[in-house]
Design brief:
There is one protein chain. The chain is α/β, with parallel strands linked by helices. It folds into two domains: about 130 residues, HUPs (Rossmann fold, 3-Layer(aba) Sandwich), CATH 3.40.50; about 140 residues, HUPs (Rossmann fold), CATH 3.40.50. Helices cover about 35% and strands about 25% of the residues. The protein is built from ten helices and twelve strands.
Amino acid sequence: MFEKILVPLDTSPMAEQVLPYTIELARAFNSSVYVLNICEAHKGHDITSCQTYLDTEVSGLKNSLAGQAKAVKSELITGSPGEKILSYAQSEKVNLIIMTSHGRSGVTLWPIGSTVDKVLRRTGVPLIIVKVKEAQGASLQTELFKKILVPLDGSELGAKVVPYVAEIAAKMGSEVILFQVIETAKHVHSLGRIDTVPFVEGELDSLKKRAAEFLEQKSRKFAESRAKVSTLVKAGNVAEEILKYADENSCSLIALSSHGHSGFESWIIGSITSKVLNAGKKSLLFVPAIEP
């Protein structure tokens, strides 16, 4: 599933925080790893120093993997980071991009809203965004795939993430929580605007029952996995409940699909993915879903 993994670096320790997880994945999936260093001359970098940095990182990665991955390749590129990451991923037909939420200048170089946001919105392959530890000497989360929260919305497009999580769980022995939040009110169009209307008595219970049945159906995808799988339905604000559960239950990763019942605009660009990524403290596995 993850035969080719792309790892963008920018010469910063923050961006390098992605490497332990890359090693873990490459070992589990026997992947080829593509290390991409984007050298930005206008930021004061020169080609020679960028190449030296890249060679050093690739050498260290090869030593850490010790032949437990199919191959380790590298390339030095100049230009706009977001555009170059996307074009390289397409040209090399990678199956996964893994990068940190921030890079060389902390929250100002790869802010969510520029490079990471551009890749998130336009990627055609799964993307893992590792939330960085900014404090000096902060210990890294070493078990990124230990406990995975999978928010679903009852749609097949929203469930496109499930096979990827099932494959990771099978390789890593992850604990998986299939999670659905039912909004306590529905949105209706009236007089050219969208209003929020509370559910009538019994309607919310019916939605919860339907959600539980959907989650149970999707849990069967893990039948042949060594993963521990549970399901949970809650009512409330979707993004807030996802973040609250992830924090209170020490989830290591949140896995989301790009589409849901309400389509691309509200699921990725709107409140759900944006809030989970920007307001949350957890790393994110994002799987783009393409409508049939």
